[in-house]
User: Fold these one by one.
Assistant:
Number 1:
Amino acid sequence: MLNLAMVMIVSKPNKNRNRNTAMKLKSPEMKSMFGGQPGGGFFDLSLLKPGDTSKADIVLLGIPSATPYTSVGSYCADAPDAIRAAFGWPGVLNHHDFDIDGYLIPEGIKAVDWGNLAYSETDFAENRASIKSHINQILKMSAIPLVMGGDDSIPIPVLEAYREHEPITILQLDAHIDWRDEVSGETMGLSSNMRRASEMGWVENIIQVGARGIGSARPQDRQDAIDWGVQFFPMREVARNGIHAIIEAIPENANLYIALDIDVMDPAVVPSVIGPAPGGFGYWQMLEILEAVATRAKIVGFNLAELMPSADVGGRGALVAARIVAMVLGLVARQKSE
Ligand SMILES: [Mn+2]
């Protein structure tokens, strides 16, 4: 009774005050303070069209959808734009980046943003063909593609594009191993990407980091991966032993493709995913991995998948995703300038 009375006494005036301030409160953004990003691409890079033929060292590409499961549709289609909107304003690339200790993109390196690929909600084979041909165009320009997905079906057609190029090693960062052969008859969906990759003759090694919890794999899926030669670093092991063994597992000077499902991050850091799993990476741990990887191997491609803006909390997940893409951009730019 006493508690209830206290609640009633304090809650009534507070309620009114909250309502009044809520009406007056505005929510300004940093990028508004410094000039917004009208028409700008990721981190205010030049925003071009997919397939633009101007020479670049690094091409960012938004791929909203590839082969969505029809049960859920293209639930990550808004992610590329959410990632672009999360950070950046005119001139920010002229600032000192404290996470990489210098300009994010060293002078002399040209990175561009191709915007988003068009996609169909019904013709998934057409989506895959378009993705493959655009990535192939980037590779033929001797540029490095950095892909902003989209659900995790996107790596399948992206990896297809490496067929005519040097053999690759894949570093998958994901709470889930994605070795299902099919789901409801769909073999090209988000739960099958590493199995499909394993069937590509130009994929030499697969290293999978971050698997955790339950719901990532059936025992036979995991066994098939081990029989193929996958080196697993489940999250429990990484939490206990650190990242050194992961880096050692990557062949030196390998052509490394990084397939990152943002659910590899802890849900407290990135809440905006369809399958949150407790116990994931923090921001600094992810940076340590990416930086160490960049000293070991040549990054030939990258994708970030599975950010679901509709489940985001105050844009927090999109902001972390944007910083991860930015760090990969910075690391690849440094490799290009060497
Ligand atoms: Mn996943």
Number 2:
Amino acid sequence: MPHIHLKEYQEATLPCQIGMSRFLFRATNVNHRNEQLIAVEVEGKPFFILRKDEKKCLIKSDKITRPSPTYLIHTALLDYVSLTDAKVLSSNVHTAHKSIHFQETTALKPIEFFVTQFPQNDSMHIEVGFGSGRHLIHQALQHPNTTFIGIEIHRPSIEQVLKQISIQNIDNILLLDYDARLFMELIPSNSIEKIYVHFPVPWDKKPHRRVISKAFIEEAIRVLNVNGKLELRTDSENYYMYSYETFMGLRQLSLEIHKNRSIAVSSKYEDRWRLMEKNIYDLILINTEESPKRNAILHFKFPKKLCNSKRLEALNGTTVTFEEEFIHYERLYRIENDGMLLRLSFGNFKQPEHLYLIFRDDETIYFPQEPIATPTNYKVHQRLIKELHG
Ligand SMILES: C[S@@+](CC[C@H](N)C(=O)[O-])C[C@H]1O[C@@H](n2cnc3c(N)ncnc32)[C@H](O)[C@@H]1O
């Protein structure tokens, strides 16, 4: 994670532009005054730099708003050093250069791309957690008329696969840096031919983090076209049993089970398990039904004059739960000269979203962007309006 330790910095007046970065505003945590968020925009992408003033001053990117690619963060951190005329004590940010592979390929798409213009093709496949990308790339080369969407949350894997896409000039892969469980709700009904989930992390100690769950399978059935398949491949007997039981909890399904089936390409993980002579299990769900279309979601706006700082202070640190969803008001910040900033997590317990909200006299807005337009988020947003209003 890029970070810099500083000393002897000067506070600058914001907003202001320096280098490639436009610094927008500063907000201080009301409970921990040594923690600040600095809103910045580089190449049109807004995000926060997190600053912690302890013995030394540390600046790094904020996890929730962290932009992709990483060089945007490097740029903002280096520009912040210039802005504050600070002395650098230590740093792992040396230069802010654009990775050539990010420049050459347009394969990496932001989540908003899928919200506004979900790709359409008669043949669409999705791979969840593609890791080294061996299977994804092999499939894409074998099926040039199919569009592949690869979803990963591990940045180095994404960068590695982008490099391969660029070197091999592959034009039928789109990559997304996002939690696949949340992504499922955005996919149009009956649009996908295959979903691969190969060697998901078993999360034996934190089962709520597993990709496979009842909600995931139900969404998979909705998005698969008739005869479309969800292919789970695992070396973990525990995960296999857990998934089998989850599948069996459904009222109606068609399932294929294989043990030690060979497939056209084996992943890095598979090679490792085969060397250790571990068994490999496939659970393949075949969708048999047409699903109803999803209604379009309107918007995530707030009414004017929604709440005051007293209400926000009362909510700070609290959690409200309802049905299968929750809202946790995690941290409150005071924006210098103008308003409040709230960090919150909300949504379904198993797949929460983390967000920021800005409150100014005349408006309440999400920063840097609205939540992804899923039915769950919309439901929680409506509840949030009521909660904030008090
Ligand atoms: C054990 S690795 C397997 C990688 C690859 N499928 C293979 O067979 O080599 C699991 C991958 O899933 C990714 N992953 C875990 N949870 C995820 C999620 N919710 N959404 C997207 N990717 C996820 C991890 O980052 C990791 O790269």
